[in-house]
Amino acid sequence: MKGKLYRMTGLMLLMALAAGICAGCGGEYIGMSGKGVVSGGGVSGQAVSGGAVKPTGKDSLKKYTYCNEHNLYYIGYDFKAVECNRQTGEERILQMEVDAICYVDADWLYYLTYIGDEINSRDQIWRVPVRKEQQWKVDESAAEMILEKDLGGSGQYIDYWCNGSYIIFVGDTGESNSLLQMYNIRKKQYDPAEDTKVWKILALVEDRVIFDGEKGLGEKKFGAEPVNWFHEMEKELYLDVCTLDTEKDEFFWGECKSGQEHPVLWRYRIKDGEKKKIADEDQIRQFLEKKGLLDDCEVAADHEISIWGVFVQEGTFYVLIRIVGSGGFVGEEDTSPLCRNNVVISKELGNSGEWRWEEEINEHLHNPESEQKVFRKIGRQGLENDCIYRSRGSVVAMAEGTCLMYLEHTGAKKNQYASYDLHTREFKWLTEKDAEVYLQYYDRYNCSDGDLGSYYLMYSLPNNY
């Protein structure tokens, strides 16, 4: 199968999910294909070990990208698209050549293929009909191409977002490679491009796209309306993490200064344009100090606090925090080990609620004291660190009432995915078979990092099993 092999970066560790850590069903965006392209991710506990996924209500389907009411679609290990019946768990391997699935609704499956070589290459977005009269199966014989993008020999990588009405991407216009492109599928033409630079698309809702651009965070409604820059960002600030509450159309993000300094969390209500600061570093630090989490290694002021993930589940806002104490560089006299810790705190969104400690999640993240030994690791710049790990891994995603973690399994001496049910409080280690279908293609926004790769995982885990 032809494909963008250069997309296979440090994300191969995530192939245990077969198709995505950050995916969704019925929503917006091309997910991680078998080639390792990043997507989003959530979970239904019904999917474990090939079990059926119960169909959700029609109103809930808007938060999904890769399934309709009847079928879930994903890319398997063999790079073939798989059609999985959500009620029976029965799977059908499709024969069409697919690099990534873009979007699924009740009528169509949209997908991406890559054609060419180092000299001439192009992306093609196709769609195939879902035949209701044929038990809601896609008809591969009726595939039709709806958009082609000439890449030349640049080998550039483009993220295409789709919602069945538009295909959105940041792409080359001949003069600039950072203009927002909005292709109207029904009209078979592009809307006029905005004369503003866009760095990254962040969310796609029913009537607009949200992005990070030259003036900060902006939103563009489909049609002729100009860009609304709802949050301007100073030059020394940058976007750190973000998520979208697809049920309430509320956008959340964290920003900080260079070097992971002074994180601030924000909330934006898309319907009425209300923006509100949720918390800043001082508030988070005070909470962590009360819990005694800044007592390790050095004085509390020396601890670096950064936000590594934000999640929304059933009206609750969860924050994954990385705490790093000072010290650790090899060769310096009297230098204590570098302390690393990942924890989760939360608050209710319906009121001003106080931050709360997620007791059960943090218990599973915690590295047993007997395993808190000094490990030496080499960083990106080739510098060696002596580290002590207070946590044994990290939260990867939350969806469908389930928290997905990637942890060191101390008993088995390996790193492994695990799930925690937010309702029943059940914790389980996932087998490789479970991981193929677990947390696939649900609520793609609730993942810990859109660029989750081997470097991130290595520095979240005590060992590199």
Describe it for me?
The chain has 465 residues and is mainly β. It has four helices and 30 strands. Strands 21, 22, 23, 24, 25 and 26 form a six-stranded mixed beta sheet that branches. A hairpin with a 3-residue loop joins β13 and β14. The longest helix is centred in the middle third of the chain and has 10 residues, at 281-290. The protein is globular.
Secondary-structure blueprint of this entry?
Blueprint: E1 71-75, E2 80-85, E3 91-97, E4 100-104, E5 108-116, E6 121-131, E7 137-138, E8 144-152, E9 161-162, E10 166-171, E11 179-184, E12 189-190, E13 198-204, E14 208-213, E15 216-221, E16 228-232, E17 237-245, E18 250-257, E19 261-269, E20 274-280, H1 281-290, E21 304-313, E22 316-324, E23 338-348, E24 356-357, H2 359-365, E25 374-378, E26 384-389, E27 393-399, E28 402-409, E29 414-421, E30 427-429, H3 432-437, H4 454-458
Parallel strand pairs: 23-26
Antiparallel strand pairs: 1-2, 2-3, 4-5, 5-6, 6-7, 6-8, 9-10, 10-11, 11-12, 13-14, 14-15, 15-16, 17-18, 18-19, 19-20, 21-22, 22-23, 23-24, 25-26, 27-28, 28-29, 29-30
Quick take:
It contains 4 helices and 30 strands.
Main attributes?
single chain, six-stranded mixed β-sheet, five-stranded antiparallel β-sheet, 6% helix, disordered N terminus
Which geometry do the CA atoms define?
globular
Oligomer: single chain
Number of beta-strand segments: 30
Radius of gyration: 22 Å
The CA-CA distance between the termini, in Å, is 30 Å
User: In percent, how much strand structure appears in the residues?
Assistant: 35-45%
Largest sheet: 6 strands, mixed
Q: Please, what is the average pLDDT?
A: 77
What is the percent of helical residues? under 10%
Counting helices, strands and paired strands, the structural category is mainly beta
Helices, by number, come to: 4
Give the low-pLDDT segments: 1-59
